[in-house]
Write a structure and sequence with these properties.
Blueprint (H helix, E strand, L loop, with lengths): L2 E4 L3 H14 L3 E5 L3 E11 L2 E14 L3 E22 L13 E15 L3 H16 L7
Antiparallel strand pairs: 1-5, 2-3, 3-4, 4-5, 5-6
Length: 140
C-alpha cells in the first residue's frame, strides 16, 4: 500500500504529493527535490495527543514516469499528572510539617506505529492524482 506508479516526472509527482499533504492540514518540515517530510498534530481525546509524520519519496523511472513511495508513522502521547509534596521543618519549634503540594503534567509516549491501513494510503494517492489532473492555472 506504500507506493503508486505515475505517468508524470518525479518533480511533478512530488509537487502534487506536497499539495495533497498541505490540503489535509500537514505542515511541511523538509522539502527536497525528491523527498518530503510532513507532520500533522491533533488531539483525539482530552488526555491524548497524537501526531502523524508523513514521508514521501519520488523516484524517476526512465521511460515510465515515476514512482511515489509514502510512509506514515503515528505517535500517541498521554498527559500524565503527578503530585509532588514537601514539608517544612523548623528546628527551634520542633518538627512542623506543613504539606505543600503541586501537580506537574508531562506528556508520555504510549504508542508509535507505522500506519498500515491500505485505505489511508489509497485516499492519499487518489488526492495526489487529483492534483496531477488539475490544469495549471496561469497567472493574470
Amino acid at each position: 500500500p506504500y507506493k503508486i506508479q505515475l505517468h508524470v516526472p518525479a518533480r511533478a509527482a512530488c509537487e502534487a504529493a506536497q499539495l495533497a499533504l498541505l490540503s489535509q492540514g500537514y505542515r511541511i518540515e523538509i522539502e527536497q527535490a525528491q523527498a518530503i517530510k510532513a507532520r500533522k498534530d491533533f488531539q483525539p481525546e482530552t488526555e491524548l495527543t497524537a501526531s502523524i509524520e508523513f514521508h514521501v519519496v519520488c523516484k524517476e523511472r526512465p521511460a515510465a514516469g515515476s514512482i511515489l513511495f509514502a510512509n506514515a508513522v503515528q505517535t500517541t502521547h498521554e498527559l500524565k499528572k503527578s503530585r509532588q509534596s514537601s514539608s517544612i521543618s523548623i528546628p527551634s519549634a520542633g518538627a512542623l510539617s506543613l504539606p505543600f503540594g503541586k501537580t506537574t503534567e508531562s506528556l508520555v509516549k504510549i504508542a508509535e506505529e507505522t500506519i498500515a491501513d491500505e485505505k489511508f494510503y489509497a485516499r492519499y494517492f487518489a488526492l495526489v492524482q487529483a492534483y496531477l489532473e488539475q490544469p495549471a492555472k496561469q497567472p493574470k
